[in-house]
Design goal:
Helix content: over 70%
Oligomer: single chain
Mean pLDDT: 89
Shape: elongated
Low-confidence stretches: none
Number of helices: 6
Largest sheet: none
Distance between the termini: 33 Å
Radius of gyration: 22 Å
Number of strands: 0
């Protein structure tokens, strides 16, 4: 119930009344990313969002969908995103390529943000777990002190739980912002 409330308020705060028809998509996206991130916290499981191809595919689908919605609603006026009104022609030659490159890099930054955060945390957990296992199997005094990396792993699992939830929220809220920019061309 709280996930429904969070995703509904995220959509209404960022897109407004016009975005209500996109609620099923945003909720499904949010739930998919949350579950994909949380599954990776289960030992011996696989986090699909720690692979760039998955996050990039999600971001490209969102980017394509948002552009289709924008061209369907605004037509060729959608190209005004690259040249704000009142810009001189001399400045347009500089501004249009910069805006175009910035627009194209939106899905790349969206995907890399999720991928890098999930990959970094899970890699850190695996390295510390391997270190604890090496200490445990070494025996002697190291056997006693293997408790320290295990305690660090427990703390990091709590941190990774927070990161998994926050990254799903950030991915979804940025998707809402992209949708808002398309629906209400500023």
């Amino acid at each position: 119930e709280s996930l429904v409330y969070v995703s509904a308020s995220m959509l209404s705060d960022n897109v407004g009344k016009e975005g209500e028809r996109f609620y099923p998509f945003i909720f499904t996206l949010f739930l998919f990313v949350v579950m994909s991130n949380l599954i990776g916290l289960v030992p011996y499981s696989f986090t699909i969002t720690s692979h760039i191809i998955v996050t990039f595919s999600l971001a490209i689908m969102i980017f394509t969908g948002v552009n289709v919605i924008g061209f369907k609603k605004h037509g060729s006026e959608m190209l005004c995103l690259f040249l704000p009104g009142g810009t001189s022609i001399a400045l347009a030659f500089l501004l249009v390529p910069i805006e175009l490159i910035s627009y194209i890099f939106k899905p790349i930054s969206l995907s890399v943000r999720l991928f890098a955060n999930m990959m970094a945390g899970h890699t850190l957990l695996k390295v510390i777990a391997g270190f604890a296992w090496s200490m445990l199997s070494a025996g002697g005094l190291l056997f006693v002190f293997h408790i320290v990396p295990l305690a660090v792993i427990i703390v990091l699992m709590g941190l990774e739980l927070g990161v998994a939830l926050i990254q799903a929220y950030v991915f979804s809220i940025l998707s809402c912002i992209f949708l808002n920019d398309t629906l209400h061309m500023h």
